[in-house]
Design goal:
The chain is of the alpha+beta class. Helix content is about 35%, strand content about 40%.
């Protein structure tokens, strides 16, 4: 099983919305991918409540059957649409992919 984890820091304002509104919209868009991406087992999105200087604002935890399924997810049209939205509101991104 492949685990794909991404953490984002968001811009204070982007797209006419503040950070909190963008975080909620981002969560909604990412969680809407559940059941739409072949090979994706799970997609969970969390919004940070600690609000520290070292915190990320949004975290994605997802699981895939294989590395190939993760690769296919990256190019899936539904994911590409969400990725485009995120690229416009994010300040920073960190990622980790591993096999368990």
């Amino acid at each position: 099983m492949i685990k794909h984890i991404v953490l984002w820091k968001l811009k204070e304002n982007a797209g006419g919305r503040d950070k909190a509104a963008n975080a909620r919209l981002m969560k909604e868009k990412l969680e809407a991918l559940n059941g739409k991406i072949p090979g994706m087992i799970k997609c969970e999105v969390g919004l940070d409540f600690s609000q520290t200087d070292s915190s990320a604002d949004v975290v994605l935890y997802s699981e895939f059957h294989t590395r190939e399924a993760l690769d296919d997810y990256q190019d899936h049209p539904d994911h590409v649409a969400v990725k485009t939205f995120i690229m416009n509101i994010r300040e920073e991104r960190r990622i980790a992919d591993y096999e368990s």
